[in-house]
Design a protein that fits this description.
247 residues, mainly alpha, globular
């Protein structure tokens, strides 16, 4: 669980945001934008899939509907209405999906399974297994989507942090330390970590502090990419941290 949001935002976080990709993708002459948009779809498909399932659709229908939604998105059909001034990226995706389900789901549902577009090779079987395993059966679709969105950003931040450690040849250190990210400060076994990493206990404390600080930075960066302006980061962080606290 990330600590409370920190103040201050580096302008560099906003050089390439998700909104920038979406708005660039509206330009059909930009080949790079299509590839970037596909990356975004891969990153956020599970919260959308979970939203569709919670709307009462069967696993097979939810798989087809989510794939068809991505087909429309990648074809830029829905991007023409995209406006970064109207809110956060997660809101844009949810509104677009809700509109798709209201207007198009019956037609998409009639597509022969496997006969429509498959824009991304998503592991839909794994998605359903994850959906069942995570439970939360009492949550409304919108709340479920919000929580899955928060978890997705958390997972992205963790993956980025691990990649940073791996690039420095410190994968083993990361694997030993990562449990400290979710542990209460008083519950971290520094003596055991020190022994596992062949460090002094003081050095282990420094390593944990550095890890938690870098994770906060990565989480903040992941959140910053999904809002349209720097001043929105603090509110979005508070919202997402509150959601993660419910899980």
């Amino acid at each position: 669980m990330p600590d409370s949001p920190q103040t201050g935002t580096a302008p560099s976080l906003f050089l390439t945001t998700h909104w920038s990709v979406v708005l660039a993708a509206k330009d059909k002459s930009s080949p790079e934008s299509a590839a970037a948009l596909e990356v975004l779809c891969r990153a956020y498909w599970f919260p959308l899939y979970a939203f569709v399932r919670r709307q009462g659709h069967s696993p097979s229908d939810a798989q087809d509907l989510t794939q068809e939604f991505f087909a429309r998105l990648l074809a830029k059909e829905y991007l023409q209405a995209a406006d970064r001034e109207k809110g956060r990226f997660r809101t844009f995706l949810r509104v677009a999906l809700r509109r798709f389900l209201a207007n198009e789901w019956d037609r998409a549902r009639r597509l022969k399974r496997g006969g429509g577009h498959t824009p991304l090779p998503l592991d839909t079987t794994a998605a359903e297994q994850r959906y069942q395993a995570e439970g939360d059966n009492a949550l409304a679709p919108d709340r479920l989507y919000e929580q899955r969105w928060a978890r997705t950003l958390l997972e992205q931040a963790l993956a980025r942090l691990r990649a940073d450690y791996a690039a420095a040849g410190n994968t083993a250190e990361f694997d030993q330390l990562k449990g400290a990210l979710t542990a209460e400060r008083g519950g971290i076994a520094y003596r055991d970590l020190a022994a596992a990493l062949d460090l002094t206990e003081g050095a282990a404390r420094v390593a944990v502090h550095r890890l938690r600080k870098r994770f906060r930075e990565e989480f903040r960066a992941a959140v910053a990419e999904t809002v349209s302006a720097p001043e929105e980061v603090e509110g979005e962080l508070r919202h997402l941290v509150a959601l993660l606290g419910e899980t």
